[in-house]
Every structure is written in C-alpha cells, then in structure tokens.
Specification:
Helices cover 22% and strands 40% of the residues. The protein is α/β, with parallel strands linked by helices and 121 residues long. It is elongated and about 40 Å long.
Amino acid sequence: MEIGARQLEAVFRDYFVVNRGAPCYGITAAYAIGDPSTINLRVTFMAGKTNCCVEPGCHFGRDWTRLRMLADQHGLTLPKPLTIRFHGIVEPDVKLTSLGKQGDGGTSEGYEYYEEFAEGA
C-alpha cells in the first residue's frame, strides 16, 4: 500500500459514515500516479447491506470543505483543486430503499460505473 493510502482511506470512511444511516461500503483510495491532485476512489456497495441507492452523487455529495476538514484530522493536506475519480462497484443483492437507476427499491444487480468529480466544477 502506498504512503498515505491508509490515511486517505480513513478520510473517506469517515466522510461516508454520515450517509443515511451509515451504509456499509468497501473503500479503497489512492492518489493517481503522476497526478497528486487526483484521487482514485473505489466504493463497493456490498451485497446484503442496505443503501438508499447506488448513485455516486448521492453518496459522495461533493462536500469539499468537509472532506478537507477530515483530511486535516487524519494529518493529510489535500491539493487544490482536487479531482475524485469515483469507481462504483455494485455487488449483486445490495438492498435498496429508494428510487434510482435500480428502480423502486428491492435488490440490485451487480455492475460497475465511473464518475469524475472536480472541485470547483
């Protein structure tokens, strides 16, 4: 694991913990090779766990101020502006409680997606 990766992952675990009853995520995070202003964030929505949806904008929320505050608490200084490359992995049978790409709740099918969030955009 690269230097700072554990701290970076801890920042995102803390960031996501307030989301609608603290759903359970698998999280990995690392600075992009050759571009420290970009973080590659992989979020796994885990089978059998309950989430409102699996939409990246709902779960990430783009609260850059809070993200930076949490980074400071973990001894990290994030570059500005920051880009997050969000790789969502939806395992089969994630329990959903609201509308979204999955429809009217129920359980998910497994799939993956990518979305990029740029600070200031």
